[in-house]
Amino acid sequence: MFVLMVIVFVIGYACIALEHKLKIDKAATALMLGALMWILFVVGKESILNDPDITNKSWDEYCEANEGVEHDESFFTKFIIQEQSLHHLGETSETLFFLLGAMTIVAIIDKHNGFSIITSRITTRKKTKLLWMLSVLTFFMSAVLDNLTTTIVMVTLLNKLVADRHLRWTYAGMVVLAANAGGAWSPIGDVTTIMLWIGGYITAGKVIAMLLLPSLVSMIIPLIVLGFSLKGDLETPQPTTTLPNSSDEKLQRFCLYWGIGSLLMVPVLKTFLHLPPYMGMILVLGLFWVITDIIHHKRGDHKENSVIRILTDVDTPTILFFLGILTAVAALQTSGHLAAMSNILDEAFNKNTYGIGLTIGILSSIVDNVPLVAGAMGMYDMGATADLVQDGTFWQLLAYCAGTGGSILIIGSAAGVAAMGLEKIEFIWYLKHISWLALIGYFAGAICFWLLHSVLFA
Fold first, then answer.
1. Does residue 404 contact residue 181 with C-beta atoms inside 8 Å?
2. 179 to each of 69, 170, 252, 317, 415, how far by Cα in Å?
3. Which of 64, 206, 227, 251 has a CA-to-CA distance to 185 between 20 and 30 Å?
């Protein structure tokens, strides 16, 4: 059953990749995959959890905490359903509610035509110049917000700036690369970097100092390469129609500034109050909702412009796709598949820091980087070697690789999944046109990281 889970995951992954050919929406496939992985785990629970060759830290800890309790069927079921399933549901829900809140805030801004204030100031129609402007802006925005929120904002902007569908996909692909690169060097820019920072594996000052340049290189190299193929001017998209009484400049400005300010408050609340990011997101969304309701009631156009109506425009399939993928990966983590993969890496690279780190980064383009980093944090004891001390080479490299490696495939990061859902980007199209650029940037940044550690700071 342990092997069958891997086979089912690979098949499901292939169906998601071939969505366009199979004519089956990726959200439906992901939901089925997530449920099937847990069903297979429950069916084969005893053989999987009792296998001495499978490393499973959570199972070992559960057995120690319940020493003396008979290991009957209910014991296994309680571990899977009551302990692990609910635990992962909580983690998954945090991501989903965060995504739902961010998408709703962006939808409110967009409904009030707030983004036109930004797009009206982007006067260049040169394809290459616009590409650089958007990428650099995304890079630094994702370090302050996070790569998921930044991607949602920037992809929404692209709809106002670029008319051609496939050209817009190219820009969206670079937004994903830039958002993941920008999140990697900031302690609050990416979930994996946040995990390492809060866990004490890295410190804010060191991770910024050592990863800013490699992350920047991982974005700049693809930009330079892509710039050679983008020539000429852009075709301006047709202006969108706004609802009556909601398009005056004063209300547009308010919604834009308040909305962006609300998103900026989320990492601030996370930093100072240590609340989960979704908690800050639902707080600022609720406040934004109340204020816009009051404004539209006073204007007499609440029925047409209520947030309830705006919620119908939020991309629900993208949220369901997240649910399915994260549920499937959670099953792999609970059953010990990810730990087994970590052990294989350890043996294959003879505990070589760069070999393991770079491979984890590439794997994070297939499997969610959060459980991969969590697995690495559980596998290696901080301080065991010179590379594993606080701010050691391995932890910094792990932050870089896990953050930027997810760009190699579009479903390898939250930013990529969000862009895929919002723009309906095809997996195979991204693989052909963006993945190789992301791979070049990934290794270029890794070389830069190696030079910094081995030459400048040796």
1. yes
2. 48, 14, 26, 22, 7
3. 227
Using CA atoms of 417, 421, 426, 428 in order, give the dihedral in degrees to the nearest 10: 10
Say which residue the tokens 């929120």 belong to.
149
d(CA 217, CA 443): 10
Q: Residue 375 pLDDT > 70, yes or no?
A: no
CA–CA dist 373, 195 (Å, integer): 8
Mean pLDDT of 187-195: 73
How many C-beta neighbours within 10 Å does residue 80 have? 20
Question: 126 exposed, middle or buried (CB, 10 Å; 0-12, 13-18, 19+)?
Answer: middle
Alpha carbons 117 and 157: distance in angstroms, whole number: 11
Q: Where are the beta strands (DSSP E) in 194-266?
A: none
Dump the DSSP string for 144-160. HS-HHHHHHHHHHHHHH
Closest by CA position to 293, among listed 424, 442, 108, 34: 108
Largest alpha-carbon pair distance within the chain?
73
- Alpha carbons 12 and 24: distance in angstroms, whole number: 12
pLDDT of 280 above 80: yes
On whether the CB atoms of residues 445 and 214 are closer than 8 A, the answer is: yes
With H, G, I as helix, E, B as strand and everything else as coil, classify residue 233: strand
Range 86-101 average pLDDT:
83
Q: What is the pLDDT of residue 239?
A: 54
List the single range of 89-93, 169-173, 219-223, 243-247 with lowest mean pLDDT: 243-247
233 phi and psi, to 5 degrees? -105, 160
Tell whether the model's pLDDT for residue 179 goes beyond 70.
yes
For residue 306, give Cα distances in angstroms to 112, 188, 260: 11, 32, 19
Burial of 51 (0-12, 13-18, 19+ CB in 10 A): middle
The pLDDT, as a whole number, for residue 438 is: 94
The packing angle between helices 353-363 and 369-379, to 10°, is 150
Segment among 194-198, 273-277, 356-360 with least mean pLDDT: 194-198
Question: Distances from the Cα of 431 to the Cαs of 75, 158, 215, 258, 424, in angstroms?
Answer: 44, 21, 21, 37, 14
